[in-house]
Design brief:
By secondary structure, the protein is an alpha/beta fold. It folds into two domains: about 120 residues, 3-Layer(aba) Sandwich (Rossmann fold), CATH 3.40.50.1000; about 60 residues, no CATH class. Helices cover about 50% and strands about 10% of the residues. A five-stranded parallel β-sheet has the order 3-2-1-4-5. The chain is globular.
């Protein structure tokens, strides 16, 4: 991370401004009679799973098609599959407040999110929190494509070198770093907020 003060905050949505996605996925798998890590292992090791998810995140297939394909690959009922996968995901109120407070303090803010269906975002909340929004299913590209981060900075009204970027997935961070962004790997809310406060030189509580 660079030491100079940054003036813009770009964040991921799922797993950063919400509770842990993979915990919810694990609960879903257990209830479906699968190993708790079945979905994670499928993402890592099954090309068909990965290709299906990528196509969905890039907006190349519609939600019903994704659910049918994904349910078939998992061997589970596909009806309402996305809602069931995300059933235990909720807002991280402290992280949401930190973004809100950053914007109120004059920090430019932006969202850079790989989407599981674009209709699932609270657009009024996005307008409240962010100066700019980049959602993969609306752009036809997804992280870690560098264009996602460039668009995020541009729409937030900031130079990439002025930005802090926060993501829960470590492999999404290097492209942001290569553009000159300071990065924070989100694991714990308290630690993330403290790291962002140091980089932005602003109190977020």
């Amino acid at each position: 991370m660079a030491s100079e003060r940054r003036t813009a905050l770009l964040v991921d949505w799922g797993g950063v401004l919400t509770t842990n996605l993979f915990a919810s996925f694990g609960e879903f798998c257990t209830e479906a009679g699968l190993a708790p890590d079945a979905l994670v292992e499928a993402f890592r090791g099954n090309r068909e799973f990965r290709d299906t998810l990528i196509a969905f995140e890039e907006g190349k297939i519609e939600e019903p098609v994704f659910e049918q394909r994904f349910g078939g690959l998992l061997g589970v009922d596909h009806a309402g599959l996305i809602d069931r996968l995300f059933a235990r995901v909720g807002p991280d109120m402290a992280m949401l407040a930190a973004v809100r407070n950053a914007r109120a303090a004059g920090i430019r803010t932006g969202l850079i999110s790989n989407s599981w269906g674009t209709r699932r975002y609270d657009r009024a909340m996005l307008d409240e929190l962010f100066d700019g929004v980049v959602i993969s299913g609306e752009e036809g590209i997804r992280k870690p494509a560098p264009e996602m981060y460039l668009l995020g900075a541009q729409r937030a009204g900031a130079d990439p070198r002025e930005c802090v970027y926060v993501d829960d997935l470590p492999f999404n961070l290097p492209p942001a770093e290569e553009l000159g962004m300071a990065t924070v790997h989100h694991v714990d809310t308290t630690q993330t907020i403290a790291a962002v406060e140091r980089l932005l030189d602003v109190a977020l509580d």
